[in-house]
Amino acid sequence: MYAKCGDIPDSRKLFEYMPERNVVTWNAMISGYVKNGDMKSASVLFDKMPTRNAVSWIEMIDGFARSGDLVTARRTFNEVPFELKNVVTWTVMIDGYARKGEMEGARLLFEDMPQRNFFVWSSMISGYCKIGNVKEARAIFDRVPVRNLVNWNSLICGYTKNGFCEEALDAFGKMQNEGYEPDEVTVVGVLSACAQLSLLDAGKDVHKMICANGLKLNEFVVNALVDMYAKCGDLTGALWIFERMTNKNNACWNSMISGFAVHGQTKEALEFFGRMEESNEKPDKITFLSVLSACVHGGFVEVGLEIFSKMEKYGLAPGINHYGCLVDLLGRAGRLQDAYHLIKNMPMKPNDTVWGALLGACRIHMDTDMVEQVIKDVCTSCSSVDSGNDPHYALLLNIYAGSGSWEKAGRVSMVVADRGLQKTSGRSSLMLDNTEQFHI
C-alpha cells in the first residue's frame, strides 16, 4: 500500500521491520522501487532476494524496459531460469522493444516465442504503427489466430495515428461484422478518423452509438467528441459538449480554439483563449499555435504579437511552427522587413516553411527586393539549391513576371535551366456558365 501510494521510505521501513518475509513481500518492495523509477534500489534488493519467482524477474525486466535501458532488460531476460520464463516474461520484453520503436529486436524475439497471448500480438501491431510501418502492422494483425477487441483497437488506433483514416473506418466496420462491441478505446480512434476526414455524419453516428451502448464518457471520449465536432465544422455541437464537461483539460480547450481558428472564427478563438487563461488549465504549445493561426486568418497582427510574447510567461519556448505563424502574420500585413528580421533573429535555423511564408507574402505585395535578399539567404543556408530542386526560384520567377520585370525573369529562367531546377506547375481555373470548371 505504501509503495503503490508512492511513499517508498515508509514502505521500506515496514519491510525492514518485518520479522519474516516471503517472495511476495520482496516483490512488493521491488515493484514499489520500479514504479517510482528507482531501478538502482530495485536491483540491489533483487540481488539480495533469497528466492525469486516469475513475478520477480518480470518486474525487473519491465522496469529496465520502461526506464529505456533495453540492454539491461534483455540481459535480465536472458538470465531468467528456463522453468520461470513464461509467456508473460516474453511479452514484457517484446513490449519493451515495441514501446521504444525497436521493432527489429521485438520481431526476432516474437518469432522465437514458444506461445503467444493476445497482448503480445497487440504490442507488435502498436509497435509497427508507432514507427509508421502500417503495412507490417496489418500483416501481423492478419496472422493473429484468434482476435479480440484489444487487437482490433491496436489496428484501428494505429491506422488513425498514421493518417490511414479510411482504413481505420473500414477496420471498424469489419470488427463490428465479426460481432465485437466497441469500447471507449475503439470510439476514440474512430472519432479521430472521422475528424481527420471531416465526416460529420459518420461522427454523429458514432456519438449515437456511444449513447446507445452506454459507453463511459471518460475524458478521452469526450475530448474526441469535441475534437470531431470542431474539426468537422459543427462548432455548435462541439460547444454544447464542451460547456457540459465537468473537467476541461488542455486537449478539449485546444480542440475548441483550433476549431474556431480553422473555420475563420478568430474572435471566438481569442475569446476561448482568454477563458482558458482564466481557468485552471495553462495553455501549452499547441494552444499558442492554434491561437496564432487564428490571428493569421483574422489579420490580427498586434494581438498575435502580444500572444506570442505570452509564451515566456507560461515557461514555453516557441518552436519553429510558432515563428512560422508569426512570419506569416507579419508578411500578410505587409510588414515584410519585420518578418525578415524575425527570421534572422530566430534561435533556430529557419526551414523551408518559414522562408516560404515570407516569399509568399513577397509575392502578394510584389516586393522583388526582399525576394532577392531571401533567395541569397536561402542559397547560403540551405543545400536544397545545390541539389537541383528548390521551389524558391520558381516563386521568384513568378514574382518577376507578375511585376513586369521581364529582364530579371529571363535571368532567373536561365538559372533555373542551368541548374535543372524543377518548377512547380501552375494551375488556373476557368468557369463557364457557373456549371463546369476546367483546370489548366
UniProtKB/TrEMBL annotation:
* SUPFAM superfamilies according to UniProt: TPR-like
Task: Name a single GO biological process.
Answer: RNA modification
> Which N-terminal residues, if any, form the signal peptide?
none
InterPro entries recorded: PPR_At4g14850-like_plant (IPR046960), PPR_rpt (IPR002885), TPR-like_helical_dom_sf (IPR011990)
Give GO terms: molecular function aspect only.
Answer: RNA binding
Q: Does the keyword Repeat apply?
A: yes
Q: Where are the PPR repeats?
A: 22-56, 86-120, 148-182, 218-248, 249-283, 284-318
Which key words tag this protein in UniProt?
A: Repeat
Q: Name one Pfam family in it.
A: PPR_2
Q: NCBIfam families in the record, alphabetically?
A: PPR
Q: Which family does it belong to?
A: Belongs to the PPR family. PCMP-H subfamily.
* Name by which UniProt lists this protein: Pentacotripeptide-repeat region of PRORP domain-containing protein
